[in-house]
């Protein structure tokens, strides 16, 4: 080996020896803190730490760090890093020749005779250094770590981590966040928090939990915090965006029940935290500002019925549109002041809707800009007053079409007066010297009036010239002269405002006569009732408006009847043409009664639809004169008057058959109602059991062919149920004798239907078809199954069978009715084919009363169910003591 490599080899072995000494010294100094750390990690990773109670966890957590730090400091003080001299000495101690020290020795004197010996000595040391190994320090390790903890501890920790690899990191993170406040009772503190959205959102409160830290709320929401247990917490807030927090920081106040409570207005995005010996609860709130509504014309405005402005519109808002208006602005082409604009309300489907698409029909024929070119813009407003606008549309504003010359003239004069907005040239206060000796306000100031009013006065003079030649109705003449007097003695432009109503009434009188007043009252009553239904008015208000509408309808009918009598009968008093269907005396009353029921049950959409239908029917009334052929106020003529021959025997028998089936059907409907009410009054669990036990029509009940399938209720388990069959201990004891009464009545109705079916089989002239016979057979079997279900206490199953029976009987009745119509049509021939219409504008038939088809009126069961729901909501509101719940229930009731 080269001589010059020995020093390098020796230095490396000395360094390796020193490193081994460092390990020993480190273990000696830091064995205690290492043992504490191993014990802590073992407790955490094995899950033993989290099994301790929170106060014990906090105590161990606090105790660990001081002991660990003390042991660590003691270790640093004890530890001394070995240097190269210590490494060289320990390396020499491992060999008897001390090669490291001897290698660097130098002879005191060297001679020629001693040189060979010195060279051999250096060569031997070099071989020793090259062959020797650094000491293992076994002796030192035996004294420092006789139990081999330096090996066992790391291996044990690796095994523990591997065994709990899925939860180790989570447990470590949880341990690092140990709740120190548990020592002071903070762990028993419960925080309840919820966000109450602004009233305009109509949204329910948002209850918060610790899992969802990021919460998006409407701007202006109110956060309520309640902390119970422990001491008084502190509230910390910080902005999440650039907008600073407004106002002072809210403080928590102790409530009467001992809880700490506060409220925070969330007007900007912010972080809210509740601290008590650490964070108890916290959320990041993103306050979203409400955007203005969006609104548009879904179709171009056009002129609709009765000269109304008609168009389709659509509007949307995140929390609801409360008002929709049409902004009307004259264009430059109209020659009017373009800086002036007016608004007209647009009816909306509800008082607060989020997405709406509807058709608007607005009567603007009385508007002062009727007939002029205007710019139309829709404006939608939400609950906080934000307004969104549509794209403008330019059109000529519809004006009412008057055929009578006097009516057209009255309207033209009226528009001239309304469009004049200039003031008198000389104010009234400057006229005192001129009017000396005259009573102020009684002088003729027409010469000082604006040009438009002077022009209107001249037009009135011209129209009223020679009334004996041009006026057949003196009421119109006196109205026009009264308008002229008002113009002459007006002191200022605003004094001419009464001419609006006066001239409009004169135009309507000249065009329509006295019916116009009754129609105006009817439309006003309809609009008021529809507005109350839309806005959710009180029950008393709706009831009052309903009575006003009923009275207005009666007055309108009386006025139309008087007009028909006054004008005479075109047919010479012979009544209605034969075969024309007339409005029965009870038709209107029935529709008004149904409308009353809908308003009382809160079915506002259906009530508004029926209200529109009733109004349309009244507007389409075609009265006959007061001749001998009239039967009642509507000019109802009986079929006998149209055709003196009595109906054939077959037709009369079919009528009686249809009436008998209708009686059975009505009786079954009443039983359905009572079954439904009994089901609602029974135990919910029993009703659920009945749902499991009952059979559907398409499965084990009645097949499409009318036969009872093999899986019927009687054959499933021998008890008439599809469940466990324990009727005596289950449903049977729940119902008692009530189901017995219902089942007896159901048996009676089934017997009636069976007798009706037997009577039909013996009579070949009833006009039924094979499908009708099949309907009745299925209905009979359904009634029998309903009877069995009632006896077994299965109310829900009985209801399904009853519903199926009603459907089948209704279909059979429809086929009988069609057969009866065919008989009448064949007998009357062309008399029923003339395309005639009844007084309500409906297509004429062969004398059968209109059954109201096409008008969806909820039946008694649905109306009763709606009443029950409303009563339950009101009862819950009366019982509730929670202000938040009461506010929510009140908003819910306001909608219905």
Class computed from helices, strands and strand pairing: alpha+beta
Percent range of helical residues: 40-55%
Q: Report the principal-axis shape.
A: elongated
Largest sheet: 8 strands, antiparallel
Number of strands: 17
Number of helices: 26
Portion in beta strands: 5-15%
| Low-confidence runs | 432-442, 569-582, 624-644, 682-737, 830-855
Rg is: 49 Å
Distance between the termini: 107 Å
Mean pLDDT: 77
Structural account:
The protein is α+β, with helices and mostly antiparallel strands. It is 48% helix and 12% strand. It contains 26 helices and 17 strands. Strands 10, 11, 12, 13, 14, 15, 16 and 17 form an eight-stranded antiparallel beta sheet that branches. A five-stranded antiparallel beta sheet has the order 2-1-4-7-6, with no helix packed on it. A hairpin with a 5-residue loop joins strand 11 (302-303) and strand 12 (309-330). Helix 23 (770-791) packs antiparallel against helix 24. The longest helix has 40 residues, at 6-45. It is elongated, with a radius of gyration of 49 Å.
């Amino acid at each position: 080996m080269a001589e010059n490599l020995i020093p390098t080899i020796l230095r490396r072995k000395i360094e390796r020896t020193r490193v081994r000494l460092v390990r020993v010294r480190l273990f000696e100094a830091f064995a205690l803190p290492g043992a504490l750390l191993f014990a802590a990690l073992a407790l955490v990773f094995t899950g033993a730490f989290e099994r301790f109670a929170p106060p014990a966890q906090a105590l161990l957590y606090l105790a660990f760090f001081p002991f660990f730090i003390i042991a660590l400091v003691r270790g640093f003080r004890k530890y001394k890093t070995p240097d190269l001299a210590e490494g060289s000495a320990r390396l020499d101690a491992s060999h008897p020749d001390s090669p490291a020290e001897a290698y660097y020795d130098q002879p005191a004197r060297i001679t020629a005779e001693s040189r060979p010996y010195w060279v051999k000595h250096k060569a031997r040391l070099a071989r020793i250094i090259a062959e020797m190994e650094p000491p293992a320090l076994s002796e030192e390790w035996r004294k420092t770590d006789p139990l081999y903890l330096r090996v066992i501890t790391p291996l044990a920790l690796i095994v523990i981590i591997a065994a709990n690899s899925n939860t180790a990191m989570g447990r470590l993170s949880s341990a690092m966040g140990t709740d120190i406040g548990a020592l002071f009772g903070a762990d028993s503190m419960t925080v309840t928090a919820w966000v109450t959205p602004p009233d305009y959102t109509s949204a329910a409160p948002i209850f918060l939990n610790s899992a969802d830290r990021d919460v998006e709320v409407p701007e202006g929401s109110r956060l309520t915090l309640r902390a119970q247990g422990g001491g008084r917490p502190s509230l910390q807030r910080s902005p999440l965006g650039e907008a600073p927090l407004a106002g002072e920081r809210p403080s928590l106040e102790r409530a009467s029940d001992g809880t700490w409570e506060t409220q925070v207005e969330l007007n900007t995005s912010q972080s809210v935290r509740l601290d008590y010996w650490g964070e108890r609860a916290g959320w990041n709130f993103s306050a979203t500002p409400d955007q203005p509504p969006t609104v548009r014309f879904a179709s171009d405005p056009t002129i609709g019925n009765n000269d109304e402005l008609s168009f389709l519109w659509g509007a949307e808002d995140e929390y609801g549109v409360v008002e929709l208006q049409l902004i009307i602005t004259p264009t430059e082409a109209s020659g009017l002041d373009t800086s002036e604009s007016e608004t007209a309300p647009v009816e909306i489907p509800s008082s607060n809707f989020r997405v709406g698409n509807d058709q608007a029909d607005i009567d603007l024929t009385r508007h002062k800009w009727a007939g002029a070119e205007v710019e139309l813009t829709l404006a939608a407003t939400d609950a906080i007053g934000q307004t969104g606008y549509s794209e403008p549309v330019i059109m000529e504003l519809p004006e009412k079409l008057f055929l009578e010359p006097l009516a057209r003239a009255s309207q033209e004069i009226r528009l001239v007066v309304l469009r004049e907005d200039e003031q008198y040239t000389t104010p009234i206060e400057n006229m005192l010297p001129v009017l000396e000796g005259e009573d102020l306000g009684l002088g003729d100031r027409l010469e000082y009036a604006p040009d438009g009013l002077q022009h209107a006065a001249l037009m009135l003079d011209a129209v009223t010239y020679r009334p004996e030649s041009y006026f057949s109705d003196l009421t119109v003449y006196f109205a026009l002269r009264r308008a002229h007097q008002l113009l002459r003695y007006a002191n200022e432009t605003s004094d001419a405002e009464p001419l609006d109503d006066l001239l409009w009434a004169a135009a309507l009188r000249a065009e329509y006569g006295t019916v116009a007043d009754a129609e105006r009252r009817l439309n006003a009553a309809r609009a008021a009732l529809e507005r109350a239904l839309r806005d959710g008015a009180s029950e008393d208000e709706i009831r009052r408006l309903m009575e006003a509408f009923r009275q207005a309808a009666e007055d309108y009918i009386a006025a139309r009847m008087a007009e028909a009598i006054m004008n005479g009968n075109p047919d010479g008093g012979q009544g209605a043409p034969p075969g024309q269907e007339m409005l029965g005396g009870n038709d209107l009353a029935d529709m008004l009664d149904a409308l009353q029921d809908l308003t009382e049950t809160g079915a506002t959409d259906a009530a508004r639809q029926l209200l529109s239908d009733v109004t349309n029917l009244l507007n389409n009334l075609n009265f006959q004169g007061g001749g001998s052929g009239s039967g009642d106020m509507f000019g109802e003529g009986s079929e006998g008057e149209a055709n003196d021959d009595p109906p054939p025997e077959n037709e009369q028998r079919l009528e009686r058959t249809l009436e008998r089936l209708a009686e059975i059907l009505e009786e079954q409907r009443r039983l359905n109602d009572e079954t439904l009410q009994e089901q609602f009054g029974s135990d919910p669990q029993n009703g659920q059991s009945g749902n499991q036990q009952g059979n559907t029509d398409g499965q084990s009940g009645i097949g499409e062919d009318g036969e009872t399938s093999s899986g019927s209720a009687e054959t499933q388990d021998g008890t008439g149920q599809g469940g466990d069959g324990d009727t005596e201990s289950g449903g049977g004891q729940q119902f008692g004798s009530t189901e017995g009464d219902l089942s007896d009545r159901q048996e009676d109705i089934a017997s009636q239907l069976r007798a009706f079916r037997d009577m039909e089989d013996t009579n070949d002239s009833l006009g039924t078809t094979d499908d009708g016979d099949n309907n009745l057979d299925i209905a009979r079997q359904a009634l029998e199954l309903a009877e069995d279900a009632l006896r077994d206490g299965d109310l829900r199953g009985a209801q399904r069978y009853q519903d199926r029976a009603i459907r089948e009987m209704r279909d059979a009745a429809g086929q009988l009715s069609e057969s009866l119509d065919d008989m009448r049509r064949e007998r009357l021939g062309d008399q029923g084919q003339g395309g005639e219409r009844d007084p309500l504008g409906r297509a004429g038939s062969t004398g059968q009363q209109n059954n109201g088809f096409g008008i969806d009126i909820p039946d008694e069961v649905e109306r009763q169910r709606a009443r029950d729901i409303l009563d339950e909501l009101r009862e819950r509101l009366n019982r509730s003591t929670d202000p938040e719940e009461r506010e929510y229930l009140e908003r819910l009731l306001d909608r219905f």
